[in-house]
Amino acid sequence: MAATPKQPGSAASVQRILAAARFAAEKHAQQKRKGASGEPYFNHLVEVAELIAASSEELDVELVMAALLHDTVEDTGVTLQELEERFGPDVAGLVAEVTDDKSLPKETRKDLQVRNAHKKSERAQKLKLADKISNLRSILASPPVGWSLERKQQYFEWARQVVSGLTAPDRVLKAEFDKTYEMISHLKAD
């Protein structure tokens, strides 16, 4: 009897997602968000994965896994090879597409995100969009200590420039980004 392919909602799919979540939680265990509340960094990863999962009727298991793992290479010293060995080439490839080169200055990395947004695959664009939504929400809820209204507005504008460069933004996520982006107009100076 031939093996039947696993359905997106199968136990194997859930186990793969949970394995990625556990790995990300372990690797980011000591990290906190930059906001005043200092929430665990893992919360950001779960929010990005949740945004990805909620944006479509069909679950893209590898994309949800990549959402959970999207900052491991950048922030924890995990290699793309390690991700490929543990989670497969699709997940590692998606993570690679959204990973900044930390050896470059911050302003250069930010500029490259704007200039290269259109070069990303459709799925990586979806991941980038979900990441930006989560970051904007975090700035609204608990901005980094010392960030002025102007600094928050600058970040929002930069995020908008990145998202504007996406050639295939997910319709659901783009609507959520636009709604979140508009909230900066409601903030008052500290």
Describe the structure in your own words.
- There is one protein chain.
- By secondary structure, this protein is mainly alpha-helical.
- It has one domain: Hypothetical protein af1432 (Orthogonal Bundle), CATH 1.10.3210.
- It is built from ten helices and no strands.
- The longest helix is centred in the C-terminal third of the chain and has 20 residues, at 122-141.
Number of helical stretches of at least 4 residues: 10
Averaging pLDDT over every residue, what do you get? 93
CATH class: Mainly Alpha
Helix content: 55-70%
Short description:
The chain is built from 10 helices and no strands. By secondary structure, it is mostly helical. The termini are far apart.
Outline the fold blueprint.
Elements: H1 11-27, H2 42-54, H3 61-69, H4 72-76, H5 80-87, H6 89-98, H7 106-116, H8 122-141, H9 149-164, H10 171-182
Helix pairs in contact: 1-3, 2-3, 2-8, 3-6, 5-6, 6-8, 7-9, 8-9, 8-10
